[in-house]
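Standup notes
- HV: blocked on the assembly model, inputs below
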Amino acid sequence: MAPPPTAARPLRRAASVLHRRAGLRLALLLSAPMAWLVLAYLGSLAVLLLSAFWAVDDFTYDVERVWNTANFSTVLTEPVYRAIALRTLGIAVAVTVIDAVVAFPMAFYMARVARPRTRKLLVVAVLTPLWASYLVKAYAWRVIFSQGGVLDWLVGPLGLSSPGYGTTAVIVVLAYLWLPYMILPVYSGLENLPANLLDASADLGASAGRTFRSVVLPQVLPSVFAGSVFTFSLSLGDYVTVRIVGGKTQVLGTAIADNVTLNLPLAAALSCVPVVLIVGYLLAVRRTGALESL
Amino acid sequence: MILSRRTRIALRAAMVAGLAVVYLPLLLVLLNSLNRDRSFAWPPAGLTTQWWVRAWQSEGARSAVLTSLQAGAGATLVALVLGTMTAFAVQRHRFFGRQTVSFLVILPIALPGIVTGIALNAAFRTVLGPAGIGFGLLTVVIGHATFCIVVVFNNVVARLRRTFPSAEEASADLGAHTFQTFRYVTFPAVRSALLAGGLLAFALSFDEIVVTTFTAGPGVQTLPVWIYANLARPNQAPVVNVVAAVLVLLSVVPVYLAQRLSADSPGGRL
Amino acid sequence: MRISRIARTAAAATAAALLAAGCGSGGTAGSTSGHGGLNPPKLPMLQSLGPGEGQVNLVAWAGYAEDGSDDKSVDWVHPFEQQTGCKVNTKIAGTSDEMVSLMKTGQYDAVSASGDATLRLIAAGDVAPVNTALVQNYADVFDGLKNQPWNSVNGQMYGIPHGRGANLLMYRTDKVTPAPDSWSVVFDGASPYSGHVTAYDSPIYIADAALYLMRTRPELGIKNPYALDQDQLKAAVDLLKTQHKAIGEYWSDFQKSENSFKTGDTVVGTTWQVIANMAQTDHAPVKAVLPKEGATGWSDTWMVSAKAAHPNCAYQWMNWIVSPTANAQVAQWFGEAPANAKACDRTTDKDFCNTFHAADEAYWKDVHYWTTPVKSCLDGRTVACTDYAAWTAAWTEIKG
């Protein structure tokens, strides 16, 4: 290499310092992202948590910085909040299970059956709906579920009718909205399965079913959990879809959203419920290696 | 793995059925953008192109798209820088708290948008307010970037996991300094991952409504905010469907490009 | 650590004591306004009108700031913008609670507040007194709307009256027979329409149940639907819990509500005239009536934020919206009685002001304007009444 021009010297000197000192390199790499995530994000969450210990003036609704734990005891002891939390949890679990069951065969077909050319087209086909507006899709489902709507029109001849707006509609629409988030990680998990592993299983005399159970499933499970991180947490926190197709269904998201205008400290305390559930879920699935498969 | 014919047929049927369900509502959106009845009467009594003409002329839709493009570009840029830095730190270094960092990055997208939204709103009000910075486009960009970092991070980490540091070491051995190595060796290796991650980050930002609601100032109307305000309005709802249909059609281009350019896991990682 | 904790506890105790004292003094008067002791912070009001700031941020009820995007002929925002150079950014709020919370952000200049928001905003110092001398069209506002307990304190106006109306009962003429003339169709008699009844999604809706009980169960002794003691509130809550079984959707988004009536997902429930008008424009077979029990209603006031960044444009907007022409337009579009007496000459329907009882003060005695329930009973009783915080908690419980 030619001797560097003088102007580049400070750059080279900085580079060599960086090269020698891995710690400094790391510190420089981490400083900005951590400043953002810890200060801006966790800091904001801390402000929110703090405000959960405040009260509101019962007339003006101004937040009063009077330290108390009444909001938490309301959330923990009022039966209505327990019912709401359990309902939301049930919806999130149902959505996750439905998505896993629907996504797996689709991802399997894409990764292991389709020809490479078709495979690319299928990936595009699965990804494209992510770009369609979430709101418009949810609203399209409102039209589908409405009285005399598309669903009634489709199943009417069979003597059935639309379930109308409510919990069922919420589960269907959320499962629909988050399906690509489940397909993609499962697809990459299946695609990354080494072919010789499957061949070895077959050579050892295992049937396709046996190979699937003993080789494919254990290898791909972390990817399914990775997908479930999205389906579970997005369902647990959603309120817009519930407002559109949920009818009178109350979930954590709507309860928080309602209380933002009614009682902000209570909304803050209520926010802790999905946060705790999701952090717990993330910690649990982390052990399966799911977060590396995102 | 050798699958029986029957299994293959069953899997193909599942794929077709799945895609049919995925596209049914989108077709409905397209159809309703042509529905003569402005409140989506089903089945449509007649078709019209007047909503497409109206959408083309809609001042509100156009300025909302522009605002969303700005917000998306800003958030994506921040996410690209911060996500890549974090990915390199986590993947090329061993340090205490490494696991915590990868956990922390995921948190903003996993926690409910409304929690992130009201938390940022409260923080902006207490911190930025006294500094004279009101709610506006900047606060939206900050909010979006926070949950967009993760998709860039995931894509870059996945790529780094597959490219071995040996190429970088070879570059150093040949006399390239750190920045040269980055420019000529490392960056080309992660370029397509950045593209895939950047596109997904942009898509996330472009479609976000909840955090936006709590971080946008008055008069800042991103596309989803405009859509939410017009979704059920007479005369406006069909126009919203036109905008949505156009977006789906246009999105095929970046999605296709991304998966062409990205070698591993087509379409990138979430 | 320890010291700071003790200090904090002490501070909290003091604050709580002060708060209690504040409530106590507010409750002594027991006047019908209920806020005889309301002591808003001293805030300056605009003394002279300066040049416009180029824009104004409004928080408004649906249909109060129409810019022609729903209906090209319904537009009083663009003429205002052209005349004053103030660009209007409107945030539509679905409930009074939303309005209060939006105004607390300090990002908005003016708000069309109903009576259950006005005093909360005044007491919190979120809105400034209004210098009516700077609002030329204020002179033509009906006297019955000036210096009322919900828009003024000690003779000082805190806003410009906009208009008033009642919450109505809407039903699908093809699905609800016989045609209802009583709120019972959404309460005791709701079962035939189970799954298709709607109600307004705000704690203030408890007053609608109370109003119904006031007429149907006199033994409860309800005199004012906004002054409920523990037992009366419980009766209203029980009624609403029964109603919940028949509810399909609650609404606070007027568009969604209109939409549900059109598709038939909702067949009966409470509504605003504007929603009924819009549904009828779309050929939905609906009708809106004032039931025999009377109704809750609203009297709205445009108020200016204490932190308004664009106060001059806000004043110009207030003057504009109560100007005879604009006030007539908004009153006809929303379906309410205008505040400006001269607006009655500008309505396209010459009988409009009579139909909506614009000048008929006696009629308004039976409409129970939205107001915030407080501990000191608004009907003058000396027992403890339930305040809005209790209503709010009850509302979540009702919705289950």
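- HV (later): unblocked. The CA atoms of residues 27 and 188 of chain B lie 39 Å apart. The interface with chain C takes residues 38-39, 60, 125, 129, 134-135, 217-219, 229-236 of chain B (CB under 8 Å).
- Next: hand off to the docking folks.
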